[in-house]
């Protein structure tokens, strides 16, 4: 029922935007006493219509726009050669009737150029004013939430990674923009940067008084990225997320395959005696500790991540403040419960792959200080030294590159340095580095991520999909995989999407490790391996080069190897903006409206330059899909969506293409400059070219919608 209501709400919202646009044309036309013959929302055959006075009001079946048909709208002014069958008005049956229409003082062509321009621009102005009204209401309501410009995850081998940004860093200025800076605005500045252009960040790092200044050159990070980025995500809150699967609410906890036992409630306030779920949406983690040890108060996600990393092999006691149905009484402490969350073992098919080259080094990190460079290959790693200060253990060439991150985290916790042997071109050299958890951060697995992050060491590297060895009696061994085999791809089946619904098919997630032309594919085995740790136990398909059929395997938990991931799902960190006075809200709305207009034109320019992908275009299907997602989040987000969409409609309608309002305005400007109507041949040519361009653009945008909807995987 909620889905149906959301769909109806989006239809009505978009229909209202079309209505106010056409209402602008209609109202100004009436102001100048122009005869309006039809006011239509939608095209095609009418769903219903009625006549009031001289105007027919129509609701059409095709909800892709609307129109106001004025008398002789496309015809010539009085005294010009008469054309029959003009669009938007009744077809004159005789030459006499045609001349009567052309000479009618209420026909559109017989108005002054200024009047016709006012009628044309009125629809655009109505959309701009509505967008402004939406923004002003939001800023005045006190209900608007924004994400602060605080770094969450730092993706490996990205501009942010090489610059040395960390989880928890706060970006306080971007290119001298400091006021009202939030994550979305920062991301927009980055996305609309020009080729070769750098963005200047002022960064406030916890524990440091002076801000850091970093200059980063944005780029498209992963295959499929639509805009340039610097490679960061917004930070998460410690509040557990609201999660829906198949439209039904589920707990914000997805038990991974390697979890050693269930999460259990070990202590609770009496008011929570009837609660049976250890984790509920809206709960907030406030303290964490190991059983029998002291508990630490946590207030930020980086603090929680540090504990998860340090004690990833231990069960943890999480103290949560339960969500209250009535949060208006802030003086009453929230009831608490304590949950025992077991550790999560890594699940592995039993493959050791080949370590590829280092792809990036984090500026100021342990690898950078040790002199490691992109292009180096790690060919040997020291075992735990007998003397922590000297790292005097022997180097081992038989190491699993997928376990390298875990080994570096262990060394960081123990406070010991590590020795690495590197291959740099024809040269071999040894370096000593001291891993540091300050560079670690919990990073969600992403499809399309080729590089793995050896976080505590501060470098990223490639895992080449070439099998170096196979663990005896492992799933890979039983499937017949041999050393030297090349893994070309894999398919995971996300059973979490169908949990609780036996009729829903698991969602496939495809990875391509190796292309047919002996090149690495767009996905990395490391990204596949990371995502494997987040899902419930389920078989997956592994494609091996040279074999006709994929192999089906189920990864098994590995004793003594633990991951930071424990299955908890969190809300993004947001801050509520205080309610503004009406004057301040309107002023802030004006700023938001103007910035939105500039951003849309900048996006079009960057798309023409090839800086922004044309895949970012959305047609009616894509707009509708986005609208349903916004409306499901509540009226605040849906009103923001309508405001942004209204501004988009205004800008698109002002493009200098006939039959859009901007194209017709351009023709009227030409007529005004010339002092008489433009030649009919020129007008007709611009109309034919313009209509062709609009139709091609619409077909392309709908094609992008269909690709995203049916072939996005």
UniProtKB/TrEMBL annotation:
Keyword list (alphabetical) reads: Hydrolase, Membrane, Metalloprotease, Protease, Transmembrane, Transmembrane helix, Zinc
Zinc as a keyword of this entry, yes or no, is yes
Topological type in the membrane: Multi-pass membrane protein
Please give the name of this protein: Peptidase M50
Family annotation (PROSITE patterns): PDZ
Q: Which SMART domains match?
A: PDZ
Tell me where in or outside the cell this protein is found.
Membrane
Q: Which GO terms describe its cellular component?
A: membrane
Q: Name one GO molecular function term.
A: metalloendopeptidase activity
Q: Which CDD domains match?
A: S2P-M50_PDZ_RseP-like
InterPro entries per record: PDZ (IPR001478), PDZ_6 (IPR041489), PDZ_sf (IPR036034), Pept_M50_Zn (IPR004387), Peptidase_M50 (IPR008915)
Question: Principal place where this protein is found?
Answer: membrane
Q: Which residues form the PDZ domain?
A: 150-207, 338-382
* Membrane-spanning segments: 7-28, 117-139, 638-658, 678-702
Region annotation Disordered: residue ranges?
Answer: 78-107, 473-507
Which SUPFAM superfamilies is this protein grouped with? PDZ domain-like (SSF50156)
Q: Which portions of the chain have biased composition (kind: Polar residues)?
A: 83-98
Name the Gene Ontology biological process terms.
Answer: proteolysis
Cofactor(s) essential for the protein: Zn(2+)
Q: Which family does it belong to?
A: Belongs to the peptidase M50B family.
């Amino acid at each position: 029922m909620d889905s149906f209501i959301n769909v109806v709400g989006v239809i009505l919202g978009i229909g209202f935007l079309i209505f106010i646009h056409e209402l602008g044309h209609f109202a100004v036309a009436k102001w100048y006493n122009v005869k309006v013959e039809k006011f239509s929302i939608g095209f095609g055959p009418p769903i219903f219509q009625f006549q009031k006075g001289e105007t027919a009001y129509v609701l059409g079946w095709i909800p892709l726009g609307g129109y106001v048909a004025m008398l002789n709208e496309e015809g010539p002014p009085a005294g010009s050669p008469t054309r029959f069958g003009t669009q938007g008005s009744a077809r004159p049956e005789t030459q006499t009737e045609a001349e009567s229409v052309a000479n009618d003082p209420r026909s559109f062509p017989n108005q002054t150029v200024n009047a016709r321009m006012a009628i044309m621009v009125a629809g655009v102005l109505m959309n701009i004013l509505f967008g402004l009204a939406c923004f002003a209401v939001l800023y005045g309501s006190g209900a608007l939430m924004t994400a602060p410009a605080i770094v969450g995850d730092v993706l490996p081998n990205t501009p942010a990674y090489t610059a040395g940004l960390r989880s928890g860093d706060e970006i306080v200025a971007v290119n001298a923009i400091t006021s009202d800076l939030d994550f979305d605005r920062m991301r927009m500045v980055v996305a609309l940067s020009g080729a070769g252009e750098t963005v200047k960040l002022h960064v406030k790092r916890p524990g440091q008084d002076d801000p850091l200044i970093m200059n980063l050159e944005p780029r498209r990070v992963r295959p499929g990225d639509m805009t340039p980025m610097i490679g960061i995500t917004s930070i998460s809150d410690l509040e557990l997320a609201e999660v829906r699967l198949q439209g039904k609410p589920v707990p914000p906890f997805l038990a991974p395959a390697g979890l050693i036992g269930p999460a259990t409630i070990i202590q609770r306030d009496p008011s929570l005696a009837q609660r049976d779920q250890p984790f509920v949406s809206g709960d907030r983690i406030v303290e964490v500790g190991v059983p029998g040890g002291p508990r630490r108060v946590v207030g930020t996600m980086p603090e929680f991540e540090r504990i998860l990393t340090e004690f990833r092999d231990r069960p943890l006691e999480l103290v949560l403040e339960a969500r209250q149905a009535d949060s208006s009484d802030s003086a009453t402490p929230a009831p608490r419960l304590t949950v025992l969350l077991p550790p999560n073992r890594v699940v592995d098919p039993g493959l050791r792959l080949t370590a590829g080259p280092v792809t990036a080094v984090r500026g100021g990190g342990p690898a950078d200080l040790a002199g490691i460079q992109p292009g180096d290959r790690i060919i040997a790693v020291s075992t735990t030294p007998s003397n922590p200060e000297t790292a005097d253990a022997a180097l081992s060439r038989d190491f699993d590159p997928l376990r390298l991150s875990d080994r570096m985290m262990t060394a960081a916790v123990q406070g010991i340095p590590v020795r690495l042997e590197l291959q740099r071109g024809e040269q071999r050299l040894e370096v000593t580095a001291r891993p540091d958890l300050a560079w670690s951060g919990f990073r969600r697995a992403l499809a399309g991520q080729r590089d793995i992050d050896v976080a505590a060491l501060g470098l990223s590297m490639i895992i080449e999909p070439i099998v170096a060895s196979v663990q005896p009696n492992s799933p890979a061994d039983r499937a017949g995989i041999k050393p030297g085999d090349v893994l070309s791809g894999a398919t995971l089946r996300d059973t979490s999407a169908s949990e609780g619904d036996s009729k829903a098919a698991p969602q496939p997630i495809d990875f391509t490790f190796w292309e047919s032309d002996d090149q690495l594919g767009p996905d990395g085995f490391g990204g596949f391996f990371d995502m494997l740790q987040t899902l419930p136990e389920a078989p997956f398909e592994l494609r091996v080069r040279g074999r006709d059929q994929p192999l089906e395997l189920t990864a098994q938990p590995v004793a003594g190897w633990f991951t930071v991931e424990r299955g908890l799902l969190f809300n993004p960190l947001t801050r509520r903006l205080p309610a503004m006075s009406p004057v301040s809200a309107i002023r802030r709305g004006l700023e938001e409206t103007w910035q939105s207009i500039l951003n849309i034109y900048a996006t079009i320019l960057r798309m023409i330059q090839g800086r922004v992908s044309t895949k970012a275009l959305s047609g009616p299907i894509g707009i509708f899909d986005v609208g349903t997602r916004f409306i499901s989040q509540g009226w605040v987000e849906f009103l923001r969506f309508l405001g942004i969409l209204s501004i988009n409609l205004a800008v698109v309608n002002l493009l200098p293409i006939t039959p859009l309002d901007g194209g017709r305005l351009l023709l009227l400007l030409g007529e005004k400059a010339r002092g008489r109507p433009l030649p009919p041949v020129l007008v007709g040519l611009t109309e034919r070219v313009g209509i062709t361009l609009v139709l091609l653009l619409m077909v392309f945008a709908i094609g992008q919608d269909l690709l995203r909807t049916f072939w996005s995987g």
